[in-house]
Specification:
The chain is mainly alpha-helical. It has a domain of 41 residues. It has three helices and no strands.
Length: 112
């Protein structure tokens, strides 16, 4: 029989172990690495959150645009805003303001 080289003997004895360790290292890297499965999942969650915020802001923006158009074109809306928001009135109108009720403070007991 031919004499085996040192590399061949080492590969026969330890080859499977080295191969298993390399595969295990690749699996760990694919799961926990900077571009691995967990990072991909976290990035997808962030994208979903940003998309949700973007949708909410788009709806809010559309509502504000409608309000701007209404304020530019609807005099009743302008009057409502002036009356309610700014407390303005037409000449001859009487404004009656009812003070808001403040919560009562418990009576302080005098020391005896």
């Amino acid at each position: 029989m031919k004499e085996q080289t040192l590399f061949q003997r080492l590969w026969q004895n330890y080859g499977r172990i080295v191969l298993a360790l390399c595969i295990a290292a690749l699996v760990v890297h694919d799961v926990f690495g900077t571009h691995g499965y967990l990072a991909l999942r976290r990035t997808k969650e962030e994208i979903a959150k940003v998309q949700k915020d973007l949708n909410r802001l788009s709806k809010e923006n559309a509502a504000l645009q409608e309000e701007v158009i209404e304020l530019r074109t609807n005099p009743d809306k302008i009057e409502e805003l002036a009356r309610n928001g700014l407390g303005l009135a037409r000449p001859g109108d009487v404004i009656v303001k009812v003070p808001q009720r403040q919560p009562e403070k418990p009576a302080q007991q005098k020391p005896q």
